Structure formats: structure tokens, C-alpha cells
Amino acid sequence: MKKLFFVSTNDWVPSGGSEVLWSKSALLLKQQGYDVTIYVKKWVPRPKHIEALKIAGCHLIEWESQIKFPPFFKRLANRFLPIKAQFQNESNPLLALEDIKPDLVILSLGDHMEGSMWTNLCIDRNIPYKIIAQLVKEAVWPADGDHVNSVRKGYMLARTVYFVSKDNKDIMSKQFAFDFPNGEIVYNPFFIGDNNPIPYPEEEQVYKLAFIASLNANHKGHDLLFEIMNSEKWRNRPIEINLYGKGPHEQQLKLLKEHWNLKNIHFCGYSDNIVSMWNNNHGLILCSRMEGQSLALLEAMFCGRTAIVTNVGGAKDLIDHGVNGFIAKAPTVQFIDEAMEEAWEQRNNWKNIGIKAYEKIRHLSNEDPVKVFAEKLVKE
Questions:
Q1: Which of 83, 208, 274, 312 has its C-alpha lying 20 to 30 A from 117's C-alpha?
Q2: Is pLDDT of 85 > 50?
Q3: 47 CB contacts (<8 Å, ≥6 apart)?
């Protein structure tokens, strides 16, 4: 029986788009008879996708930080510290690998500069590994030094590096001066319901845009939208923004909403009820500064909704601007405002634009992304 060892480096939020592909693939492979071990951060309460893996019989290793420094501080420090001096976890990765002796390690990275500790361990012990790069930061170039060299080596020696958009692959090829002959493009799984768009909301007295994303302004750009909505023209229009999600900047964003008296922005909490969200919203707004491939965008398009997004993470591969959605040229207040203005001028046509979005995305659901990816993982 082949032993598979899945690692998720996510330590920001319990669940999110980056956690869907690897966790569903691990569950499917366990059901197919593979010996599956999962190495993840310990969350309280345990997220549904991790609990499902535990119930299915996967060997679960949950780590907790010994020193309670913020995750971003430890990630930054580890870029400059030698491996022996880096912040480690209570569930020691080396001991876990030596105990399990996996045939293959699968690393799911929420940041493309993570994972070098794991790749070094695998390289030193001749353990084959594959990498899923869920997020690439174009605006943040890695500084010269041992860390970037170690990360680059890890990608070069991976059996396969999976990217969730061509945009991400191109950015990493530029940053690492490496064409990734071992790279492949894969799709994240997304909600397809009964394979039909969700009926468009009848109410058009007030137009509602859903912002479905972790409340992490560094990543998702909530602050950009708040600044736009603070302008007089958007204050006076019948439009509301519904924020769905939790995250590290929730309290700061709530303070900013109160400070600017943004009555047309609402915090709706985290929800995984996609049907309910799209029953109550006319379109999607995302102001991301970086993306892998937005699961919220894929789902909004499949549900037949107009999307207004920034030109990151392969959005241009899905959206034809002004035809089946709207793309801001860059994640700035000026360009997002311009895209929103274009969308607003066509607000009476959002239903038809959403149908075109559905037609564009429908072909991606012809094959099950989880089944396809699981087959790729175990293919020699």
C-alpha cells in the first residue's frame, strides 16, 4: 500500500480556497485504499475538512507553535535563520517523516516562498515530493540569500509543481529564472450545485455585491474597496457590499467602517452556504492584491453572477472585460473604481452578463478536478 504524506503550510485561517484541492484529493485517495497521513496546524474547533479526513481514517498530525509569536513573524524569521535555528512545531516534521516513511510527500503551499524546510528534508532523505503552489506574490520579490536559494532548489527538484493558474506559473518563472519543465496547471474544485445558474435576485432597488474572501486586507484588498465606498458618488448610490469571511483584519476593518461611517458595507461572517449567498447578491466584487485562482470567482461565474475583480491570479483567462465580467487593470483604488464604474453603467444588464459568465466557466466542470488531480498525484 502506497504511503502518502500531505502537508498544508496554511497557518492563517482554518479553511479557505487553498485547502480544498489537497484535502478533497487526500480524502478520495484514502477511500481508494491509500495510506494517507495529514500534517496540518491544530485549529480549535477542528475545521470540517480536517474532521472528515480524521473520520475517514487518515493519520492526523496536528502541530501547535511552541512559542506564541504571530505566524507572519515566524515566517519572516525563518527566511533568515538556518534550519536548526528556525521556529519548529511540537510535532517535529523530521520525526514524522522518519516514523511514517512515506512513498510520496505532497506539499500544499499557501505562499510560494514557504515549504523549504520540507523540501530540504525530502531531498536529504531521497523522498519524492510534489508541490501545490496555491498563491504567488508578484509584488513581493524574494531577497537574495540562502532562503531564496533553498526555495528555488526545492521547486527545481520537485517531481511536479502544480500551479492553479498560468499567471502564477509565469510570475514564478520570472522570479526564480526557471521555466518549470516540471510544472503543470490544475484547477481548484468549485461548487456546481445542480449544474445550472442560481436564479438572479428579483430585487433591483438596491444592488448587492458579495465580497467572499478571508478578511485579510494584505491579500484581499478590503481597504481599497472601503476607500472607494467612502467617496461621495458611491455613498449616494443604491449599492451595498456584503462581506463574507473571517480573518486577521476583521476588527481593524470594522473600526474603519465605523470611522468612515460606511453604512452600505455589511459584515456577514463566514458562510459555506453558496446557494444562500447568491440568492441574495447580484454580483461579486474582489479587490485582491494577489491570487492563485480565486475559488469565489469560479463559483460566482458558475452561479451566473457578474464579477468585478482585479487582474491577478488568472482572472483574465476567465473574464472577457465588459462581456462576461469586469477586470480592474491593477489592484489600486483608481483602477478598481474605474471597473466598478463600468459595471455600474451596465447594472441593468448584470443578469445577462452573469449568464455569459456561466457559459464561459461551464466547460471546466466537465471533469472532476479532484479526481483528475488525485490521479496525477499517484501517477509515477
A1: 312
A2: no
A3: 14, 15, 19
Query: Hey, what's the cell of 25?
Result: 484529493
On the question of a common fold for 3-186 and 207-364, the answer reads yes
Prediction pTM value: 0.83
The 8-class DSSP code of residue 35 comes to E
Under DSSP, is residue 116 helix (H, G, I), strand (E, B) or coil?
A: helix
What b/e string do you get for 321-336 counting C-beta neighbours within 10 Å, with b at 16 or more? eeebbbbbeebebebb
Query: How many angstroms separate the CA atoms of 103 and 175, rounded?
Result: 30
Task: Say how far apart CA 299 and CA 56 lie, in whole Å.
Answer: 27
The values of phi and psi at residue 214, to 5°, are -55, 140
DSSP letter at 65 equals B
Place of cell 478536478: 369
Task: Report, at the CATH architecture level, how domain 3-186 is classified.
Answer: 3-Layer(aba) Sandwich (3.40)
Name the residue with cell 488525485: 374
Distance between first and last Cα of the chain = 15
Q: Which residue in 267, 202, 260, 270 sits closest to 240, CA to CA?
A: 267
Residue extents of the structural domains in the chain: 3-186, 207-364
CA distance 148 to 178: 13
- CATH superfamily of domain region 207-364: Glycogen Phosphorylase B; (3.40.50.2000)
User: CA–CA distance from 51 to each of 4, 204, 339 (Å)?
Assistant: 18, 40, 40
What does the pLDDT look like over 133-146, one tens digit per residue?
Answer: 998 888 778 888 89
CB 292 within 8 A of CB 168: yes
From CA 299, how far away is CA 190, in angstroms rounded? 6
